Amino acid sequence: MDNFGFLKVAAAIPRLRVGDCTYNMERTAALAEEAARRGVEIAVFPELGMTAYTCGDLLLQPTLLDAADEALARLAKATRKLPLALIVGAPLRHGSALYNCAVVMAQGKILGVVPKSYIPNYGEFYEDRWFASGAGISEEQIDVAGQQADFGADLTFAVNGAEFGVEICEDLWAPIPPSTQLALNGARVIFNLSASPELAGKHAYLRQLVAQQSARTLSAYVYVSAGSGESSTDLTFAGNGLIAENGTLLREAERFSTEEQLVVADVDLQRLAFERLRNTSFRQRESSSENTVIEMEIPEGLRAAVPERDIDPLPFVPKDEGHRSERCEEIFRIQSHGLAQRLRHTRCERAVIGISGGLDSTLALLVTVRTFDLLELDRAGIIGITMPGFGTTDRTYNNALELMRGLGVTVREIPIRDACLQHFRDIGLDPADRSAAYENAQARERTQILMDVANMEGGLVVGTGDLSELALGWATYNGDQMSMYGVNASVPKTLVRHLVKWAADTEHDPATRATLLDIIDTPVSPELLPADADGKIAQKTEDLVGPYELHDFFLYNFLRLGYGPEKILLLAEVAFEGSYDRETILKWLRTFFRRFFAQQFKRSALPDGPKVGSVALSPRGDWRMPSDASAEVWLRELDTL
């Protein structure tokens, strides 16, 4: 089965006994078996796990070192039939020195040994009393567990094509961690065997360090630290297990647990390859020198169909409640500062904006109000124009008026029905013909009004269209697609709704808050077709092009992560389980790809607008695609699903 680029990894925290190598080997083997049952392909265990980290001067005793070597041999034999690679810690002699090592084994074979590069001697650490530094060791051989294996700090390994590197505890804290070079050498996963004791406040720093190193190296980073069983003579070990990917923590162990733990996650190697492909800074520093890559093929394990990672159904919406308000404030500032610069540059003190009573124009108006406040301009200089047409309902009409009045902007009402009917007569269109011409004529009439009023007032037309509409081409060319500055151009619909909700929650005026909340609850519609018999919205966008939460999910995974249709479908089924079935997701995924390619010409003529997130469709920087590019490759893949 295609694993879609996922690699299942584990940070394993066994219970240990100080100096009891047989017991430690048995607990390691038991956790390795559990990992194999869960489909793990690579599992990492704590630093010096064969002996325990806190052996002190016992580490210099030949009896203990011999026992550790024998335990490694027994572990290799005990796990030879397991379909996974293990990374375990042990003190190993080489030449006249002792090294703190990570031993990589699979299928009963020792694949290689990586020595710790940075040996600490400060605070609670004094490892240089026992260990030599492995920095600079390369292309050497070491005798271990009755086998001979490659020995070096620059080794990388490739299990079934998944290349990874290893560093040990203090290496991560160094100014230039070995993992930086390992990543540049090709490793997409870094494993760290650690035995870092707990101190107040240290854990928060550790989490940041692991996440940031995974971000800097564009890698997955799997960190494991010693836990229950280590000596508490002077220190306490909490059993940390962290799995991060490109700056995001995916999984985390329960600290201070007395139980053994197996922290498992699927890391996305395909995503990491895409990130490195698009990151020119990383490419410029990729190593051209040859380092030893040890390759090994192992049997396919018991991989689950569903990846063990959180799939966010709303990737554009901030997840962290604690930082959500801060993120919303930041987005508003980006939008308003972009508009402020454009107003200053054009020496405009007036803005013209069409207000429909829908989400997009509401957000654009809120941003424009913030901008005028920032520039200390009178809000009366914001000319809000509501332009009722054939499909305008009382609900949206009243909300548009109430919102403008509540925010203190200049209110104008310019109905478009008569103008459109005249236009229909001029071009010979029967008003009963509810074709694209019927709808688009209204959108273009509204844009003409906004542009002409802006000319009269010496103002700037603020665009309201959002990123989701641009992706789907759900905009009238030279109608609502056009403006003088589009403040919402990189804000997807799911985020628009969230930002308006945040604005409502922080609004002091009760009437304005109530209006904002009602706008949020109003179905998304261009209101270009007449209302139903009850005067309610008849033309609902999501009935026509599909749910925006699906399309935003598709857009993020396609553009930001580079996924193809099959992988997007898999992830969407997980993310929207219980909300949409496979058939529904597949239907709208086909719509997404078909429209995304066919509607590029609208994006090629996109007005200026500020970028607020990592996904944007500006033809000047973020997305450069010819308007006649074919979608056949993607649609053919969909045909096979």
TrEMBL record:
GO CC terms: cytoplasm
Catalysed transformations (reactions): deamido-NAD(+) + L-glutamine + ATP + H2O = L-glutamate + AMP + diphosphate + NAD(+) + H(+)
Binding positions for L-glutamine per the UniProt entry: Y122, S196, K202
EC number(s) recorded for this UniProt protein: 6.3.5.1
Presence of keyword ATP-binding: yes
Source taxon at top rank: Bacteria
Gene Ontology biological process terms in this record: NAD+ biosynthetic process
Active-site annotation: E47, K116, C169
Residues at which ATP binds: G354, I355, S356, G357, G358, L359, D360, S361, T464
All copies of domain CN hydrolase, residue ranges: 7-269
Enzyme class: ligase
A GO molecular-function annotation: NAD+ synthase (glutamine-hydrolyzing) activity
Pathway: Cofactor biosynthesis; NAD(+) biosynthesis; NAD(+) from deamido-NAD(+) (L-Gln route): step 1/1
Keyword line: ATP-binding, Ligase, NAD, Nucleotide-binding
Any Pfam family: CN_hydrolase
Residues annotated as binding deamido-NAD(+): N440, E469, W474, A475, T476, Y477, K602
Family: Belongs to the NAD synthetase family.
HAMAP family: NadE_glutamine_dep
Function field: Catalyzes the ATP-dependent amidation of deamido-NAD to form NAD. Uses L-glutamine as a nitrogen source.
Protein name: Glutamine-dependent NAD(+) synthetase
